[in-house]
Amino acid sequence: MRTAFINTLYKIAKRDKRVMFVAADLGYSVVERFMQDLPSQYLNIGISEQNMAGVAAGMTTEGKIPVIYSIVPFATMRNFEQIRNDICYQNLNVKIVGVGAGFSYGPYAHTHHGLEDIGILRTLANLVILCPGDPIEVGLATREALSHVGPVYLRLGKAGEPNIHKNKPRFKIGKGIVLQEGKDVTVFGTSNLLQRAQEVSVKLKDKGVSVRLVSMHTIKPIDVDLIIDSVKKTRAIFTVEEHSIIGGLGSAVAEVIAESGIRTKFKRIGVPDRFTKVIGLQEYMRKANGLGVEQIINTILTTLNS
Q: pLDDT tens digit string along 103-159?
């Protein structure tokens, strides 16, 4: 995902000199071509994320389109006040990119885990939140983010996630993508767990469960129509995300269902509301939080049969 983002941004920036890539002293091994070929459009601002947000806000007043880039917690939490006041309050055309969604930086421990970003940023007016699920969606999301006038948060994985889409889909901010139709359950996947949602849907089919699989690449604005349509067409709704169970995709979908007044079985599948006591690689951390393939399948079957 990270490579797809950089490659797409590079192509856009070569054509549009307004685009500025502002990094907080990281990204090495993927940003070198941008640095070398477009030096006047690249700024390493150092480990000063609050300053980075403020500088980006200032750049927009000079007609630039700044893209600020750091690891998820540092791109969204260390500088939250500046994102709120300098960028979103003034509805400025800044793009915020957080790399390392969920447990991507698993061994680096809690300081580097990106589990609260969606929940925190969903509270901010004017901000669009994009969580593409594979490299193809990342490229499309990057283009949409740069075309959108106003603040955008783009959430990226970094574990070499494979392409889920066989063909380039129609990508539009605020509209999810139905990857396959089904009549028993709807599974909404997002960000770096879209692949896992797809794996789960394949195995559920082997167990006789028909799954409607949806890539919910935009968390804000959420696709209300698609959620309601899924509630009407399937017997149960599940959200799958590598994010705290509070505030993310599951919360956004729950709000829509609750306000619709339609009764349905619904289950959020995400990271429990606690700090994990073990530390390890991404897959180890997923399983420690109930996000292994078989764990998700068991949760879905248990809920469906309850």
A: 999 999 999 999 999 999 999 999 999 999 999 999 999 999 999 999 999 999 988
- The domain total for the chain is 2
Q: What is the pLDDT of residues 221-232, one digit of tens each?
A: 999 999 999 999
3-class SS at 224? helix
- Do 229 and 186 meet the contact criterion of CB atoms below 8 Å apart? no
In a domain, 94, yes or no: yes
From edge to edge, which strands make up the β-sheet containing 19-23?
42-44, 19-23, 65-71, 95-99, 152-156, 128-130, 218-220
> What's the pTM value of the predicted model, to 2 decimals?
0.96
In whole angstroms, give the CA distance from residue 41 to residue 12: 12
- In a shared domain, residues 233 and 113: no
Cα separation, 84 vs 220, in Å, equals 16
* Encoded tokens for 195: 């692949």
Q: Which pair of tokens denotes residue 291?
A: 């996000």
Domain span including residue 49: 2-156
